Amino acid sequence: MERRAMETLSENRSFGGCQGVYRHTSEATGTEMTFGLYQPPQAEFGKVPVLWFLSGLTCTHENAMTKAGAQAFAARHGIAVVFPDTSPRGEGVADDESFDMGQGAGFYVDATEGPWAEHFQMRTYVAEELPRLVVDRFPIEKNRQSITGHSMGGHGALTLAMTLEDRFASVSAFAPMAHTTQSEWGQRQLAAYLGDDPAAHAKADATLLMRDVGFNGPVLVDQGTQDQFLDKLKPEALAEAIASKRQQGTFRMQPGYDHSYFFVSSFIADHMAFHAEALLP
Amino acid sequence: MERRAMETLSENRSFGGCQGVYRHTSEATGTEMTFGLYQPPQAEFGKVPVLWFLSGLTCTHENAMTKAGAQAFAARHGIAVVFPDTSPRGEGVADDESFDMGQGAGFYVDATEGPWAEHFQMRTYVAEELPRLVVDRFPIEKNRQSITGHSMGGHGALTLAMTLEDRFASVSAFAPMAHTTQSEWGQRQLAAYLGDDPAAHAKADATLLMRDVGFNGPVLVDQGTQDQFLDKLKPEALAEAIASKRQQGTFRMQPGYDHSYFFVSSFIADHMAFHAEALLP
Fold this sequence. Notes:
Two copies of one chain form a homodimer. Chain A has 281 residues and is α/β, with parallel strands linked by helices. The first copy, chain A, has helices spanning 62-67, 71-77, 122-137, 152-163, 187-194, 198-202, 206-212, 230-233, 235-244, 261-279, and strands at 6-14, 17-25, 32-39, 48-54, 80-83, 140-149, 168-174, 219-224, 249-254. Chain A is 33% helix and 23% strand. The first copy, chain A, starts with 5 loop residues before the first strand and ends with a helix. The A-B interface holds A 12-16, 19, 66-67, 69, 71-72, 224, 226, 256-258, 260-263, 265-266, 269 and B 12-16, 19, 66-67, 69, 71-72, 224, 226, 256-258, 260-263, 265-266, 269.
């Protein structure tokens, strides 16, 4: 197999480990893609487990990497963290005028409809291509992976976890888009990316997946009570589904918190400890 | 005394407390100024001590507020943190084409020379006007203050601490500009802002102040060994001065770290604990 080129854009020492930013040409999206990867100090001595952090609307690989505060706990627990971008980008890539569709808003699905299908293959990118790349190039254990995300990234984390059987040991989410088929954040985008096949939409809806298949492992969800997007996120649907499914999981409403990274960073320690418990012997 | 107007730009819940951003018209600078203030949960029940975090070149109030990770430890210790801007800003405010002079580069001095003197009164703003404002408007104890900063802000923290007798219980710095009168980061700016009076320059040089007066309390300085600006920061001069002065203090060279916020966030826990020990009974 040909080793594809990967470029190091930056590497900064962080909590005794290394916060890197890398760029490569993606087969899945047909564009250059940039991602962040934090390697904890333990990675110097052998392979480490990995946590995927999927970000929300308008974010690049950079927002969570600089604002979520994950590195302190990744270093403490000895877990690598990958921060993928949220969509393909560039001049030749389809886009939309609104901030919640097109570039910066890939919704972690493989688009089947024009003009999106050409580059918007974010599910394949995040679920297949990027895992192969990071396992190949970095000291990361292929068989110890967990996933989390914020907002659209919470939707991505939950839907990937429930559709990639036995891939992830645990899944968590911060203020996830919880019920995309019943929300302004989902209906329009899924129709554009996936057409009108209800089965395709259902595989991109965390609540429907929870009702249907659930997750083979522990689930943690945090949601702020003062989130300005509660009507679009629909946490109540997911909370109900977790309970109805008898899913092993914890759903927390956090008083006073909004949708920002100040909310994410306030609870990142809990999420990192939750994943560490699932990932470490 | 007339209560001057202050506008709330945002307030986000963070680690059980409140990360606010506020704007007011400054008498010192003659411009609108924006600052961040984190109030820990303990501020709901009474006055709390305060730590000043002064930022570096090109930063606004926002960089450290979102990237340094101070809030977790401010909440743990019950300490408020103020994040001032680094200069006056706006269309009518003098500026320079380079990133290290003019807007975003106030150097925490009161300019005496044209065209800077009109608005660049950052020492008075940070040392006098903003403390009065935050003590007046928030539950902050006037007599329990400490100060820290990064790069140009480390220079600000150290020089303010050594020239405002008994104001601060402790001072720390991340990769401070340590010897401005002997550096590209200092000579040109101090000449522009302060003219050619050697006494004025000396009061804006942490190493000269350490040799001359020192600090009446503990000092903590962290410096990365891979900092890309070591030749401009001149940490060796300050380290020598601390030892020669027999100053109570700790100077740490941190292997592998550079000048970024990944360095700052890696050691913010130590700095917050250091200040907490000085500020809390």
